[in-house]
Amino acid sequence: MAVPSTKPAVLPQVQEFLDRSHGLFIDGEFRPAAQGGTLSVLDPATGEQIATVAAATAVDVDAAVAAARAAQPGWATLAPSAKADLMWKLGEALEQRAQEFGQLESLDNGKPMGESGALDVPLCASLFKYYAGWITKLEGETMTPAGGLDMHVYTLREPVGVVGAIIPWNFPLLMCGYKLGPALAAGNTVVLKPAEQTPLSALRLAALMAEIGFPAGVVNVITGDGPDAGAPLAAHRDVDKITFTGENATGAKIIQASTGNMKKLTLELGGKSPSLVFADADLDAAVEGTFGAVYFNQGQCCIAGARVFVHSSIRDAFVAKLAERVRQVKLGPGLDADTTMGPLVSAEQRDRVNSLIASGLEQGATAVVGGAPVSDPALADGFYVEPTLFTDVTPDMTIMRQEIFGPVAMVSTFETDEEAIALANDTAFGLASGIWTRDVGRTHRVAKAIRAGVVWVNTYGMFDVAIPYGGFKASGYGKELGREAMEPYLQTKTVWIDLS
Ligand code: ADP
Asked: Closest ligand 1 atom to the C-alpha of 193?
């Protein structure tokens, strides 16, 4: 008897979208790149080409920025309730299309549907709804000069103008929401550049925004690679602000490119986050939470809490349970219902992670699980990496210093709280951290001592539209999510009126 396939068919509307020729979205219309270039989009589960998109160059960036500039005053002055209406409708439309966007995202990025359709799309939808709410609540202040001058002084909260949003491939749709939500709510217009590996959901989102009635030019999407499309956007003299999520080396280039017109910047960069498991932790919860902290999204998370420090008294029990959990991972295509871990985004990323795993072995770490390239012939054409759990790691190893962006955990031990804090802080990054303990005093002491933008206690990777998120140290600056994320998209104008 034939075993029924667990693989859902690709939805007709997803297939129809994949089969389109994908232009750049500029001034409300899709058009080919001026120089005619294209990029192939691959399914990471098979390595097969699933779509072709236009490859923008500086000429297209100029056109997109000009469209955004022309549309900005109209968008800023559109009635707040009308803007809020559009944003809310976009959130609702995404909710209704969770399966469609989820499939598209899984095909483009590789992630399981349980993550894309169930988490990424609904969270993106809730971002648009949440920021819709802020649009009607942006107010300046009336102020009294401290020197007792006879002046009427007030502030206006104005948009910065045209925003360039440059985003990565690990959460392609969600990153659109992180950037577009607060940027549009504040009255800016946007030129969005998705990652070259994963341009599809941004293009589908642009089409949806046009269907809903967003005015032409408010959001423009230019697909293309970093040097040809990203760099001219980052350097463009008529762009007022860049919001960027990606790796530190690119962040440094964006800072340099911003100096031409002193652009405002929001940078969400890399991480090397610690997970601290204390002796009094609920062991099963700590194991499950650490598993998620390391392996969620195939480990391709800047917040991955993969430097795992465990109190020596529970080390053996913790490693045994975590190893058992990692062995339960079912590798496979994102669209298969029983897949719990998909492929990495690209062959380049797979090879990079495999070579970091090899460096761990060479430098003396022990692979309790994984440690070798995937051997299953059924997965040979995809960009899969074997989930790996290392022990016997030391702080100087490459795997403990470099961001891996793959499914790899490094477990080592500590004796005292002070040692745990020192190990946690022994990194140039400061994005996130996790603490597993049932001791209230220790929770507060350690949370205060860790130099990172987020501390999760007895949980990991929690996100909410209303709660700010962003890094310390080399992990960047400017918060995302919540009210605080609106700030970098606004500027305060002070008006003085002499009453004498
Ligand atoms: P990764 O190496 O993991 O792909 P990047 O930081 O290079 O991470 O990519 C994040 C985003 O930055 C992508 O959209 C990419 O195209 C873009 N990018 C890469 N190089 C540049 C650059 N020099 N200027 C502007 N954007 C760039």
From this structure: 14
Centre of ligand 1 from the C-alpha of residue 258, in Å: 15
* 217 and 335 fall within a common domain: no
Assess whether 195 and 279 both reside in one domain.
no
**450 and 482 housed in the same domain:** no
What predicted TM-score, i.e. pTM, was given to this entire model? 0.97
Residue 85 Cα to ligand 1 midpoint, Å, equals 33
What is the rounded CA–CA span in Å between residue 468 and residue 481? 5
> What are the tens digits of pLDDT across the range 221-251?
999 999 999 999 999 999 999 999 999 999 9
- Assess whether pLDDT exceeds 70 at residue 1: no
Catalytic residues: 268, 302
Radius of gyration from C-alpha coordinates of the chain: 24
Residues 293, 308: Cα–Cα separation, whole Å: 10
Output the domain CATH number for residue 109: 3.40.605.10
pLDDT the model gives residue 7: 60
Residues 370 and 452 in one domain: yes
Q: How far apart are CA 111 and CA 98, in angstroms?
A: 14
Residues with CB under 6 A from ligand 1: 166-168, 193, 195-196, 225-227, 230-231, 234, 246-247, 250, 253-254
Tracing tokens 């969400």 back to the chain, one arrives at 268
213 and 339 share a domain?
no
Confidence of residue 421 (pLDDT cuts 50, 70, 90): very high
Residues 247 and 284 in one domain: no
- The tokens of 232 are what? 């001219």
Domain that residue 354 falls in: 274-464
Over residues 182-213, the pLDDT tens digits come to 999 999 999 999 999 999 999 999 999 999 99
